[in-house]
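Hi there, hope your week has been kind to you so far. For a while now I've been wondering how a particular protein folds. I'm sending you its amino acid sequence along with the backbone structure tokens. Could you read through the record and tell me how the tokens relate to the sequence? Take your time with it, there's no hurry, and the full record follows here.
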Amino acid sequence: VPTILVVYHSASGGTTQLVEEAVKGARSPQIAEATGVAVDVRVLLAFDALVDDVLTADGYLLATPENFGYMSGALKDFFDRTYYPCLDHTRGRPYGLLVRAGGGGTAAVDAVVPLASGLDWRPVVEPLVAAGDMTDDHLVAARELGSTLAGGMAAGIW
């Protein structure tokens, strides 16, 4: 059974909303119906995610608010603690990225992508930036991102 590790931080609740929708998409019963494979989704706050959690997952969903034009300190801490121990053991695994931003959000994407690339994780979906006021479109897009990541893993595409 493929496992997605969701690692996130949320200060005001917006990122949590995106994560909840992405997890709904990843746990969609249609994925198992279409592929015959259910995907296990494990959700952890960034400060709680450990090296072993990363090593035992088959794919990743990272989610962060944009703070001062950067990823959250909690997600940065996650990378600080897990990057080198996981460097040679998680190459080629798929990942997706959610960013909740009051502004443009691209700076947070630009902060996370090089770290994921350094780990040689494969971006299999475009990062979702939910900028400005949270909308139903943002939530639908988060759900679709989760289902695309999980569906591809279940089908063995990535």
